[in-house]
Amino acid sequence: MRFGIPNTARQLLKADEYEWLVSYLVARGLLRWSRWLVAIDGATIGVTAMLAALAPPGVLWPYGNLVMAGLAVAGICWAARWLFGRWPSHLESLVLIAAADIGVATACFAHHNLVLGVAATPLFAATGAYIAFFHSTAANICHIVFAVTVVVTAVVASGFVQGLQWLPVAMSKGLIALLLTALVLPFLRIAYSMFRSSADASAVDSLTGLLNRRGLRQEVAKAEIESPDSTPWTVVAVDLDNFKAVNDIYGHQRGDDVLVAVADVLRRCQVPGTQTLIVRLGGDEFAMVLRATKTDAERLATRVLQTISQETDLGVSASLGVATGTPTSDVFELVASADTAMYTAKRSGGDQVAQATLGPGQNSNSQNSNSHDPDSRESNSQGSSL
Fold first, then answer.
1. Looking at the chain, which terminus has fewer C-beta neighbours within 10 angstroms, N or C?
2. pLDDT, tens only, 323-371
């Protein structure tokens, strides 16, 4: 008997999702606020160390004031790095968080009065919250193990340094840190995994399994982070001809079958070796978003057009619009231009491709081509971006 793994458990076991979350934040304009939150976290650690550096004699070990002052400067620099630098890469993010954890541990053991040092360990929860959202379950486990080791070691050491009479107080402080680190952070990770599962579902069209508009925004943001200087984007907009008649005559179930068949055609027509984002924009309208040359895009559009005509029955054909941008073109402006070109093809009788070239002011010049002869141009028309 085979047992399935629940979605939440599967998310917990997945590899690092750093790039996915960064692209999600970029797509929603939330990366700047995230940058501020992480910077405030670092600045808080820095200010805490600065105040501790002013402690009276006996609170810190010899040269402990210098250590705390150094940690204060490092914390402020850490915050400035997040606030004013580019968003860190995956590896750099891990290094920065590891440095923050080491800083908290150093601040703890710089105290001669280890009871006060233990009181600083709840700061592990601040870095842990970041790891819970941005990094893998393995990274979370490493952070928790490190934090718990530091807390337990400091509590036990306080009994030797301050005396056993101080041990209950140190244990009470340590339990607070353990509660935040070993119990609250795993719940944050589980909550994030549930959110990720929900976000994945909301980014996919339930009928065809293709991306929806939200999913397209996420994937485009992710692609532009991973390869910002790659080939310009190209959009092929696809709209079915006579689809309303299919629903009216044969019923919506048959119409759904046609939409699923078209989605399968688009998947099979992808350009080999090229990442293609296939989207159901709504109703019977689809789009293929990829990095490709104008020539490759025209070939792709022609192949899609011919395959839809051959493999769908009930008199369904398609009108296509193609928009190829420049390195600075916005993908969603290209979607609008391809959509305009697609309607140009539809007004010209359908079952054909219209090529849109972005011009000044994001206008599109549309050229129609017969569906079965990509080199023939039937008409030229001017359209504006939607």
1. N
2. 988 877 888 899 999 999 999 999 999 889 998 866 544 444 444 444 4
> φ and ψ at 343, to 5 degrees?
-70, -30
Residue type, 344: T
Tens of pLDDT, residue by residue over 269-287, are: 988 778 889 999 988 999 9
- Tokens 């959110």 correspond to 195
- Do 132 and 183 meet the contact criterion of CB atoms below 8 Å apart? no
- Helix (H/G/I), strand (E/B), else coil: 357: strand
For tokens 């002869």, what's the residue? Answer: 373
DSSP β-bridge partners for residue 237: 287, 321
Distance (Å, whole) CA 216 – CA 222: 10
Side chain identity, residue 277: L
Give 93's contacts (C-beta < 8 A, 6+ positions apart): 18, 134, 135
Using a 10 angstrom Cβ sphere, with 0-12 exposed, 13-18 middle and 19 or more buried, the burial of residue 282 is exposed
Centre a 10 Å sphere on the Cβ of residue 2 and count the other Cβ atoms it contains.
3
First to last CA, the chain: 54
Angle at 27 between CA 266 and CA 31, to 5 degrees: 155
Average pLDDT over residues 122-128: 91
pLDDT band for 8, please (50, 70, 90 cuts).
very low
